[in-house]
Structures are given as C-alpha cells and as structure tokens.
Design brief:
Elements lengths: L10 E2 L11 H10 L10 H18 L6 E5 L2 H12 L4 E5 L2 H12 L5 E4 L19 E5 L1 E2 L4 E2 L2 H10 L4 E5 L16 E5 L11 E5 L1 H13 L9 H8 L10 H17 L1 H20 L18 E5 L4 H9 L3 E2 L1 E2 L8 E5 L6 H13 L1
This protein binds pyridoxal-5'-phosphate.
The site of pyridoxal-5'-phosphate has 14 residues, from helix 3.
Length: about 375
C-alpha cells in the first residue's frame, strides 16, 4: 500500500480555501521573520505594500488607471458594498446557483428590490436573448458559478452591457480569476477573494470599481441614501488615496497577495492561463470517457475551466473517502447538489503531478 504511506502530502482540490500557491508556505515564514505581522497599518512600510500589491493587480488584470481598487474582508463583503453604493431602487441578478443567489439575497436584505433572472442549476444563460432592462441600476452576473461549475462566455457578458449602457455591470470573478482576460471598459464593479485562484488562505477580498460606479455612489450620498459607513466607496477612497484603510486590515495577506501577484507576473499571466486550459481539457477528456462519473454540466461551452463538477450520485461519499485516503481532498455539492456531485478545483496551484494522482485514483474506483 504505497499510496497510504505516512508522509504523503495532501493535495487540496477543494474549491476554496484550496491548495496554497507554490512556495507560499515558505514565503509566509519569511514574511513573519521580516515582522510583516507586527508592522503598523499607518506606517510607510504598509503603505508601500498596498501600493505594490495594487500595482501588480493592475498589471495582471490590465485594470485601467482610473478604476479604483479597494481591499475587502471577503467577496461576500464586496457584494454588499456594490449594492449599498450603487443601487437605490433595483438591481437585476442572473441566478444559476448558490453564489449568484447570494448576491441576489444581499440586495434583498438591503431592501433594494432585486429582480431575478433564473435558470436551472448546471446551465448557463442565453444572455443575448434577454430584453433590455430599463429599471436595473446594476446588472449582477457571476462569471463562474462555483456551486455548479458553469462559466459564462465573457463576450455574452459584454453584450449585456452594450445592450444596457446606462446600467452598471457587476461581475463576480471569485473562482475564475485570474484565468480569464477581461475588458474592464465593459465592467463597473469586479470582485474576487484570494482563497481560490490566487492560492492564499481566506480572509481578503479585492473590489475593482469603475469611475461610473464611483460617481453613482457619490450621487446616492448627495441624495441622502445610506451607502454604508467605514467601507462606503467614499471612505475607502479617502483612505486608499493614502494606500491605507479606515480599519486595521489584513496586513499579512495584503503582503502575501503582492507576493503571489509577483510570482504570477514572473511566470506570465498568459502562461498561467494556458496551463489552466490544458489541465481543464485533460480532466474533461478523462471524465467524458469515464463510464461512471460524468461531468455535471452537459453543455460543453458552459463548462468551467476552473471548477469541474462531476455527477457522483449515491457514490459521492465513497468517492470522496476513496480520494481522501489517497491525500486528495475535493469539495462536495452545495444546496440542491449536496451529496450528489463533487467539485474539483483546477487552479495554478494544482500541479500536473497532483492532477495525475487524481486521475490515477479515479481509475482505481
Ligand atoms: C467563494 C465564492 C464567493 C464567496 O467568497 P467569500 O470569500 O467566501 O466571501 C462568492 N462568489 C463565488 C463565485 C465564489 O466562488
């Protein structure tokens, strides 16, 4: 039983938190040795870290210089900030799973009368067939629905914006960043958290805001609409102009995110995207030819390149335990698919060797 030897490392194919970025563990130790965990969030060293991290994010995503970048505690926080700061009466949401539903629910909880365009879980939207929406101040889309493994074509997302030029477009890229190249001129509020494709521990989110979205929040503020308190766009802007935050932020992860971005820029963002695509292709080919466990998303053009979902039915528990015994940790289903599917992340942190181990383990089942 070579496979069960004690010093075998676990590989986390979980959708997030997931496998740490290669070399991050060692960098965390170095950062602690450099006292990053004790420095003041009002000092020059921290301000330099924020400037450096945001600068690298701009390079990775090619974010225009007039778009703002704000630090958040999570992606869920970013959903709330977007609704609070840009919606007075109505947002419109495309819902096809648990995360897009969460965005919708946040708008509802804030009393913003959201509208829901819903399709069944495991499918995408025919975005080009939707009518213009004259009421929505914000149209919210989830690029990659992590609960089901459905990814939307970005060209369809831009089409929605072109058809609704007056609405702001909010895009959740939590589990697809930085896999897909984006045209920010078509987007107004884009967000992700770092425990997915960036391979960090959870506890930091990034929100990117267009000038139009920022102006909208100023308009709401001057009308007397509540746009929140210490994390309103206004307050975040006031502090981020100084490369600071109102609260004591996650200094350690802000530094580590800069380090991961640095590594990504060294490797090359296009290279990262190619590697991701190649592994996705390899995994889908294997499962398309697997007689027992088929991909949950039937329409090939809707299949996520970063989150693979498999129909495991009544064998779900057995499969997850079989993999776990071999140091391969995957995620189960969420909501309606709980106990029926498994979810496998495909981020840069998942090496070809890990993928081979996963495939071999499936061959044994
Ligand atoms: C994980 C995830 C979120 C939530 O992220 P948090 O960091 O937990 O707030 C939102 N949207 C999608 C698509 C996700 O995968």
């Amino acid at each position: 039983m070579v496979l069960l030897c004690v010093n075998m490392k676990n590989a986390f194919f979980t959708v997030g938190p997931s496998q740490l970025f290669p070399g991050l563990k060692e960098e965390m130790v170095r950062a602690i040795d450099k006292d990053i965990t004790s420095i003041s969030h009002r000092g020059q060293q921290f301000m330099t870290i924020v400037a450096d991290t945001t600068d690298k994010l701009r390079k990775i995503f090619e974010i225009p210089s007039d778009y703002r970048i704000y630090l958040q505690s999570s992606a869920t926080e970013a959903m709330e900030r977007i609704i609070e700061n840009t919606v007075e009466n109505s947002s419109s949401h495309f819902v096809n799973g648990s995360f897009s539903e969460k965005f919708f629910n946040i708008s509802k909880m804030l009393g913003r009368h959201p509208k829901k365009n819903e399709v069944s879980r495991g499918t995408g939207f025919r975005l080009r067939e939707y009518d213009e929406d004259n009421e929505a101040e914000v149209i919210a889309l989830t690029h990659n629905e992590t609960s089901t493994g459905v990814m939307l074509p970005v060209s369809d997302i831009y089409y929605v914006k072109k058809k609704n030029p007056k609405a702001l477009l909010a895009l959740d890229i939590v589990s697809s960043a930085p896999y897909k190249e984006l045209d920010f001129s078509m987007l107004d509020a884009v967000f992700f958290s770092v425990q997915k494709g960036f391979g960090l521990p959870a506890g930091l989110g990034i929100l990117i805001v267009s000038p139009a979205a920022f102006d909208k929040s100023m308009k709401l503020l001057s009308k007397g609409v509540s746009i929140g308190s210490y994390h309103s766009f206004e307050m975040m802007e006031e502090y981020m102009e100084k490369n600071q935050t109102f609260e004591t932020p996650n200094v350690f992860y802000t530094y580590l995110l800069g380090w991961v971005c640095d590594r990504m820029l060294d490797i090359g963002v296009n290279k990262i995207r190619e590697v991701n695509e190649a592994k996705a292709k390899y995994l889908y080919e294997f499962f398309d030819n697997n007689s027992r466990f088929k991909p949950f998303v039937k329409d090939r053009s809707s299949r996520s390149r970063t989150i693979l979902t498999l129909e495991t039915g009544k064998d779900t528990k057995v499969v997850m335990e079989h993999l776990k015994a071999r140091g391969l940790i995957v995620s189960g289903g969420l909501g309606q698919e709980k106990g029926k599917i498994i979810r496998i992340a495909n981020f840069y942190s998942h090496t070809n060797e890990d993928v081979e181990r996963l495939i071999s383990a499936f061959k044994e089942i």
